[in-house]
Write a structure and sequence with these properties.
Blueprint: H1 2-19, H2 24-27, E1 37-40, E2 46-49, E3 53-55, E4 58-62, H3 85-90, E5 96-101, H4 103-106, H5 115-130, E6 134-139, H6 191-201, H7 207-220, E7 228-232, H8 245-267, E8 276-279, H9 284-288, E9 304-306, H10 322-336, E10 342-345, H11 351-367, E11 372-374, H12 384-390, E12 398-399, E13 402-405, E14 410-414, H13 416-422, E15 426-431, E16 433-439, E17 446-463, E18 469-472, E19 475-482, E20 485-502
Parallel strand pairs: 4-5, 4-11, 5-6, 6-7, 7-8, 8-9, 10-11
Antiparallel strand pairs: 1-2, 3-15, 12-13, 13-14, 15-17, 16-17, 17-20, 18-20, 19-20
Helix pairs in contact: 1-7, 1-8, 7-8, 11-13
Length: 504
């Protein structure tokens, strides 16, 4: 039965792509300076560009295209894209943005893709590419969707309490079977949310198949676009009432179906190519620091990356250290034969108090030679995250990477502690394989080593606080001044070591 379902999904994806193939003009309206990326599994597990350079994708999450529940009538739930957003990200040395999109806006009516929304996404992907930023398109959800919220006619008896809506699925895909929307503390601890996900894993009324088909049609729109690094298939999926089974088997089955449909869609577009698929464990990982990942071998596709959210010693409720969080992610990725990438990480509250933890996280990010995306660039005053903390009242200023003044979503600059650590030096692309990376956050200095069989160009980002860069190692260095810092290119071969320090 499962194989028949997969074949049916694949056939449907091909048919939909054939009927809705994007025009080549739309596909090619992009920056041509970004090389195509792909992932490898096994001994060379990692992310690479078309020049056989290992790539670290480091950047930030971006919610401006999101479709969030609006809990306060006077506070928009998302801030519209602003013209300088991507230029400011680039000035911190970022080379990727995890762009939140929502199924509820992609397919508000079953079977009909919202082309106006797709064009808005395409516009922002192209704008990011013009600033040298790759995009990971993230099918985001929290607590299933905006159509699960406690109404005035529902009474929540202790220990339950009313729940605001969140984001994700369209109304037609929200099947709660009348269970209570009330929650116990966390948004995920709601019978209605749990049942909605249970029905998704069981493909009730074909809703999982519908998302598979939507992914195929959506991926076809970007199949020939090198600025799209890849697709994050579903943000922090809930295990539903099928604990253990959903983590090990049902999530992997959905991912496999979606990957097959996406690959068929990419192959059906002129100039289309295989993009990286980022797949996540269930939301238990973010809450507890680890959970069961999908079983090894859930897909035969090798262009995949494990993408847990590393919130240990941040919002995870278990007392795990940052180092233990990395160890667990690395162990799970090795069991799957993939690299890992932290699609979300961050600290909340007083930035000064969290600065030491942030720096420790950065040290391990360098030690493990990975990338990730900080949560989040800007948080709207009416975002459910803001209102959940304020109890529905108008919240105070929101400290994301940017400080957002409330009410009014007024720009108040960057949080300096966050910006300093996130803008530290790193290799954007390293020939062959990276071996080690040590970055000094305060001075901007960096030491990188790697190994490559053929000569290639090592590309480094340096923050402007380093002053005049002094480069040791490699040959024919080229230093380019860009807003916020420098791009350094050095030719390397064999076992190489390159260090950059400031002028004494």
């Amino acid at each position: 039965m499962m194989r028949i379902t997969k074949l049916a999904s694949l056939f449907t994806a091909l048919l939909l792509v054939a009927c809705n193939e994007p025009s080549s003009d739309k596909q090619n309206n992009i920056s041509e300076t970004l090389p195509r990326l792909h992932a490898e599994t096994g001994e060379r597990a990692g992310i690479y560009d078309e020049f056989n350079r290992e790539v670290l994708l480091r950047g930030v999450n971006y919610t401006s295209l999101g479709d969030y529940y609006q809990a306060h009538p006077d506070l928009p739930a998302a801030v519209e894209p602003r013209p300088d957003d991507f230029a400011r990200m680039a000035s911190l040395g970022f080379n990727v943005v995890r762009m939140i999109v929502h199924w509820s806006l992609l397919e508000p009516t079953r079977g009909e893709l919202n082309q106006a929304y797709i064009e808005k996404i395409r516009e922002q992907v192209n704008a990011a590419a013009q600033q040298g930023l790759y995009v990971v398109l993230d099918m985001h959800q929290d607590a299933w969707g905006k159509y699960i919220a406690t109404g005035d006619d529902e009474v929540c008896l202790p220990p339950f309490q009313p729940a605001i809506g969140w984001d994700g699925a369209p109304a037609w895909a929200t099947i709660t079977d009348g269970l209570s929307t009330c929650r116990v503390a966390l948004r995920e601890l709601s019978p209605a949310v749990t049942q909605a996900f249970t029905n998704f894993w069981l493909d009730r009324d074909g809703i999982q198949s519908a998302l598979v088909e939507t992914w195929a049609r959506f991926a076809a729109e970007f199949a020939a676009n090198p600025a799209v690094a890849g697709y994050d298939l579903l943000n922090e999926p809930h295990p539903g009432f099928l604990l253990g089974v959903s983590e090990l088997f049902l999530s992997g089955s959905f991912y496999d179906r979606a990957i097959e449909a996406i690959r068929a869609a990419e192959a059906g577009v002129v100039g289309g190519f295989s993009h990286i698929v980022f797949f996540e464990p269930t939301v238990d990982w973010s809450a507890f620091g680890a959970t069961l990942p999908p079983r090894n071998g859930f897909t035969a596709d090798s262009n995949i990356v494990f993408a847990p959210h590393l919130y240990a010693d941040s919002i995870s409720v278990f007392p795990l250290s940052i180092e233990q969080g990395y160890q667990l992610a690395d162990t799970a990725a090795r069991s799957l034969g993939t690299a890992f990438w932290s699609g979300e990480w961050g600290w909340f509250g007083d930035p000064e108090n969290n600065d030491a933890k942030l720096r420790e996280y950065a040290r391990f990010e360098d030690e493990y030679l990975i990338g990730g995306a900080w949560w989040v660039w800007r948080q709207a005053c009416g975002d459910p995250h803001s209102l959940n903390e304020s109890g529905g009242d108008i919240p105070g200023d929101q400290l994301a990477l940017l400080i957002n003044g409330c009410p009014g979503d007024i720009e108040l600059g960057m949080v300096p502690e966050y910006a300093r650590t996130l803008s530290r030096a790193y290799p954007r692309a390293a020939p062959g394989r990276l071996v080690s990376l040590v970055a000094d956050i305060d001075s901007g200095a960096v030491e990188v080593s790697g190994t490559t069989e053929a000569p290639g160009t090592l590309e480094l980002w340096l923050p402007e606080r380093i002053g005049k860069p002094q480069i040791k190692g490699g040959t024919t260095p080229v230093v380019k001044n860009i807003p916020g810092g420098y791009l350094v290119q050095v030719t390397v071969t064999g076992d190489y070591a390159v260090s950059v320090t400031a002028t004494p």
